[in-house]
Amino acid sequence: MRGIKVENLVKTYGEKVLFNGITFSITEGERIGLIGVNGTGKSSLLKALARMEDVDSGELIHPNDYETAYLDQNPQMDNDQTVLDHIYFGEVDIMQALRDYEQAVAQLDKNPNDALLQRNLWKAQERMDELDAWDAMTQAKTILTKLGVPSYHKQLGELSGGQRKRVAIAKALIQPADLLILDEPTNHLDHDSIEWLEEYLSHYRGALLLVTHDRYFLDRVTNRIVELDKGNLYEYEGNYSYYLERKALREHQELEAEQKHKNILKSEIAWLKAGVKARTTKQKARIERVKAMQEETFDTQKASISFDAGSKRLGKKVMEVSGLSKSYDGKLLFEDFDLLLKPGDRIGIVGPNGSGKTTLLQLLAGVEEPDKGTIEIGETVRIGYYTQHHMDLDDAVKVIDVIREVAEVIHTANGEVITAEQMLERFLFPRSQQWTYVHKLSGGEKRRLYLLSVLMQEPNVLMLDEPTNDLDTETLTILEDYLDSFPGVVITVSHDRYFLDKTVDQLIIASASTKWEHFYGNYSEYREQAKELVKEVNQKKSMVERTKPKRKKLSYNDQKEWETIEDEITALEEELETVEQAIIDAGSDMEAIQPLFEQQTELEQQLEQKLERWEELSLLIEELEDE
Known about the structure:
Blueprint: E1 3-13, E2 16-27, E3 31-35, H1 42-49, E4 57-61, E5 68-71, H2 83-87, H3 93-110, H4 115-131, H5 134-146, H6 161-174, E6 179-183, H7 191-202, E7 207-211, H8 215-221, E8 224-229, E9 232-237, H9 240-273, H10 281-295, E10 319-328, E11 331-341, E12 346-350, H11 357-364, E13 372-377, E14 383-386, H12 399-406, E15 409-411, E16 417-419, H13 420-426, H14 431-434, H15 443-455, E17 461-465, H16 473-485, E18 489-493, H17 497-503, E19 506-509, E20 517-520, H18 523-547, H19 556-586, H20 590-626
Parallel strand pairs: 3-7, 3-8, 5-6, 6-7, 12-18, 12-19, 14-17, 17-18
Antiparallel strand pairs: 1-2, 1-4, 8-9, 10-11, 10-13, 15-16, 19-20
């Protein structure tokens, strides 16, 4: 089977060791999820496998013609390229043929009577036939449509950030590859697109390696988990749920081994202190063994970001929203929106991209002003706003100073005082890293630092805009635990289904109708109810169809049409054969071929319509005969 083998890979970043001689392999058909705390080197490993980043030492062993397709977490694009030019990237024959064909069609559309352009299109079509590339073109356009990018000929510079990410995903999916590498593919995708991508990847022909914070996605797509932790690699056969079970068992075994080691060491030290004379060779060896045991270390000190800081006191009145309306670039996003926030509320805002979810959060946070309506905020409300795109972090500042600028200390619910240094440690920033400059942090580490800076404000109303993007699963788990015990109000915009299920108990459903709805329950409950509604509608539609009165016989017009339709189909087929032969006889005479092409297209359309009508009449006759 075709595959890739990684042997003794080593990579350092300054004093930090990302890979400490890791070895593993990826074989055909495997679906691998790569996980680890932000900053451990997950993206660096993906780039190394895609041959986009060098390593210090080690080998990648694979066949010479082994191909990889790679989705960067932050893809770089040429703004002047069109969508189709971008996704048909590469020197593979089929990609070149697709580019040439699309270019020929676009040029001929502008100058339909140009004989040279007509010949170019003819040659491009022949090349597409030769490579059997039509299915690939259909697949590419289907992928773009499913991902919500219908404008194939738009320039990339005209697209939003979310649309550009979707185009990058489509490019990775359409490229012929033995190994597909995806770095955070679910970022910027709405729920429907994520569910479609899950289904698509389950049938992907090559191997798959991905990094994602979406734990439902990991659970449903992967059949193997690889964890990168402190330069070492741990492998688990199975999906994310199985990984959690096996990791818990491994950590338990490590703790048992450490405790056993401590007990033996304690016994040995007691023996030495008892004053036994260590003159024999055996006794001296025993002393050396005790020294070695004292130097031995175990990796059982798990960093934790558990956070029990108390928020400021929140009164009974939180926020009352009445008749809110907002437009953006001339498009009405929502109108007559009402909301009453109460202490303890846990609200998720969901809906398709571009529907205005972030805009609503900005209005509630006081960042934007509504076109109409009022927002009344209680006197005790203290808002903490975690934004999706605008992390206000200075790269030239040290990590510790970022937090100290917010607060030197915070107070927990039980009155305990915690310093900025202690809080950073809880957020997986050891003392040695706290004096590092922000620009040296990974993207995920910056997100974690930014999240801490928001929580350090001790808010009592938390507004979170896509908090799961770029955070690792371990950080998300602790954030979810924190939100569970948070005494204030939480409002979050998120596409992470797992996160929504764990942190909210009601939803605001954004839609294109501008009349947004409320749902009481978590996200899975909402999706289940939506599916049941669709099922009910389909059942009612089916019942209506079954109760329609049956026709006893063909109408006069149907009967006359049935008597002649087969002769009409035969005549059209003969005429189409004549035109096709005329095209062949014309050779390279494009002036003669062009009208024949048009006639051929018209005849094919007429024939297709007649065949469809023949099938309708045939089924109708069969029903009447059955009755």
